[in-house]
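Morning!

As promised:
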Amino acid sequence: MGKQDLFITMALASWESNIKRTNAVFDSFTDEELQQPVAPGKNRIIYLLGHLAAEHDMLLPLLGLGEQQYAYLNGPFISSPDGTVKDLPSAKELRAAWTTANETLRKHFNALSTEEWFMKHTRVSEEDFAKEPHRNRLNVLLSRTNHVSYHLGQLILVKPGSKD
Amino acid sequence: MGKQDLFITMALASWESNIKRTNAVFDSFTDEELQQPVAPGKNRIIYLLGHLAAEHDMLLPLLGLGEQQYAYLNGPFISSPDGTVKDLPSAKELRAAWTTANETLRKHFNALSTEEWFMKHTRVSEEDFAKEPHRNRLNVLLSRTNHVSYHLGQLILVKPGSKD
């Protein structure tokens, strides 16, 4: 394995490890407990579940891998802050969207070659990408791994028995 | 720029971007405000400041780049949970340790060659590293970037005017 492949293996392992930890936290809550905010006046757990499901689902078009499967989540969980949308999808539906979005990504990610990881994502023009070659799919993966870790740090605050 | 160099640039940019955001959050608090917990009963901001300073300072020996500069922070901020150590260093001292630790790392990071980033870190044996070549310095950088992002997600909860 060359160093390029190794780096992609490392980036994917970091992504998967954060997904796994976040799954464990979501799974530790009952549907009713998902209504708790992560801190007083802050986002509810169910909002973060929908938010992460929507953000991960959006990676499909962002990375040029396909259409979103749950585009209807963008409105309530990306464009709107928590508490402003009256009827949110059920916990069951959001848990399924989060799981399916990650499974779909996993299938695509495992099929991408090193060359394909270094290709541009769809929000950068060919012209800008020529000047800024770091704006590639792999960079999106690194950035979204940090994003899930950021919210994991919040979710852990309401997990029973956890202090950090 | 080759792909190997490019992904090191990307990983370093991701690290620096998280450090910058975290600095901005710490700087937004007065010394008195650092005494607030990130959520009721959870770590105080000052504890996370000391924790991140100690963790980043520990990267020096972990990455084989030198001795720790602030090893006395390990006891109160890594081995001990918040609230169990009576006399913590002052806010001023912790802010300086956090800034200096990051500056020292930056100097070392910018001097490492691509080959050096793919060398083993000091907590893995030569034997294990031969079988697990991902246990290199670069992997530690990715993992510590997620770590700072995790705590940034918590700090943002107490930043005035922030909801996520």
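Chain B is about 60% helix and 0% strand.

Hope this helps with the figure draft.
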